[in-house]
Amino acid sequence: MTGPARLVVLVSGSGTNLQALLDACADDAYGARVVAVGADRDGIEGLERAERAGVPTFVRRVKDFSSRDEWDRATAEAVAGFEPDLVVLAGFMKLVGQEFHDRFGGRVVNTHPALSPSFPGMRGPADALEYGVKVTGCTLFVVDDGVDTGPIVAQRAVEVDEADTVDSLHERIKAAEREMLVDAVGRMAREGFTVEGRAVRFGRVR
Ligand code: GRF
Hints:
This protein is α/β, with parallel strands linked by helices. The chain has two domains: 1-104, Formyl transferase, N-terminal domain (Rossmann fold); 110-206, Rossmann fold (3-Layer(aba) Sandwich), CATH 3.40.50.170. 35% of the residues lie in helices and 25% in strands. It is built from six helices and nine strands, in the order βαβαβαβαβαββαββ. The chain has helices at 16-25, 45-52, 68-80, 98-104, 124-131, 166-191; strands spanning 5-11, 32-39, 57-59, 86-89, 108-112, 135-142, 152-159, 193-196, 199-202. The strands form two sheets. A seven-stranded mixed β-sheet has the order 3-2-1-4-5-6-7, with helices on both faces. Strands 8-9 form a two-stranded antiparallel sheet. β1 (5-11), α1 and β2 form a beta-alpha-beta unit. The longest helix is centred in the last third of the chain and has 26 residues, at 166-191. The chain starts with a strand and ends with a strand. The structure holds 5-O-phosphono-beta-D-ribofuranosylamine (GRF). 5-O-phosphono-beta-D-ribofuranosylamine is lined by residues 11, 13-18, 46, 90-91, 111-113, 174, 177.
């Protein structure tokens, strides 16, 4: 790869993970830059963060397409237009489909607010709290066709406090998630990475 790695980031919400990447990319030594931000909905802070940083944005809403497959194809098409080296799902609340896997398989990472393989799905922090675990955390993984099941790139542990609510726990997880994301995506960009079965390793193939 010559020049910084090209990141396309997909978001659905407040975009604090995106912001952490945008901030990291401001330093040339980080080795990556966010070339576009996509979303599945309008009016979110994540898109405003991209606009403030002067990064192009696009929105593809499921309801504007005749089927989920059409939406997936349109999203994949929009992402492909920015020629990403890596696609980062950062709080993107949709599962990507076949077209997306076919085009970018092995180059899509997602961040999940739980320690995989525990508590997959949309309610990671709530499920951890309800289960009564003392330690939870966050996971960065290479997307496969399951729900939060792909090969693990990085994880961070977060202790659960007795007084935690879902929101307070999720906020602490998100702080760890931002650090994990910036660290791991930077390494993927600078060092390259390989995926062999479930093993993800930094560094290029020798
Ligand atoms: C993160 O915890 C992400 O893992 C989860 O939603 C949160 C997104 O936060 N799916 P933000 O939009 O990056 O602030």
